[in-house]
Design goal:
Layout: H1 2-29, H2 36-48, E1 52-53, H3 54-61, H4 65-78, E2 81-86, E3 89-97, H5 99-120, H6 125-144
Antiparallel strand pairs: 1-3, 2-3
Helix pairs in contact: 2-5, 3-4
């Protein structure tokens, strides 16, 4: 359908955008000893405003628990976070940002604001909000959609 072709084009562009955003994030955070992945974990805890378990971080970010655990282990070794006992779960430690992590998060936020201002210059804020709403709607639909099994494609969609 025309809608399916348009959403496929949008998805491909989002994949391309994601790649460029990760590369930009790596460049922005490299002087602080971070990467885009490390920054994402610190940011998830910062947005939550409280310590989170690795599983909570992975759910909030839409990543696998294993991927978040690997990055969290790196952050722990580098002194950006530490693991503490979780009163609600004996085995699932909580991730706490250290002073070093808070300082890095503060610095990268300032860098990101300047970068975002440059990137957004000349773009219509209403169009940006519309884009956010559309992407959020597609993400929500995708989270609740049943995937079509390979070999059992619904012919009404082709």
């Amino acid at each position: 359908t025309p809608e399916a072709a348009a959403i496929t084009e949008l998805i491909l562009e989002v994949f391309r955008l994601n790649g460029t955003l990760l590369a930009a994030g790596d460049r922005l955070t490299q002087p602080l000893g971070l990467t885009s992945a490390r920054w994402q974990i610190l940011g998830a805890i910062d947005l939550a405003g409280r310590p989170l378990s690795v599983a909570q971080i992975s759910r909030r970010m839409g990543l696998s628990r294993q991927a978040v655990q690997r990055v969290a282990n790196d952050l722990d070794k580098l002194g950006f976070i530490r693991f503490v006992n979780n009163p609600d779960h004996a085995r699932a430690k909580l991730v706490v940002v250290t002073r070093k992590g808070l300082a890095a998060q503060s610095e990268v936020t300032a860098i990101q604001i300047a970068w975002s201002n440059g990137l957004a210059q000349g773009l219509d804020p209403a169009r940006l909000r519309d884009a956010v709403e559309l992407l959020r709607e597609i993400r929500t639909r995708n989270e609740t959609a049943e995937l079509v099994s390979i070999g059992k494609v619904d012919q009404s969609c082709s």
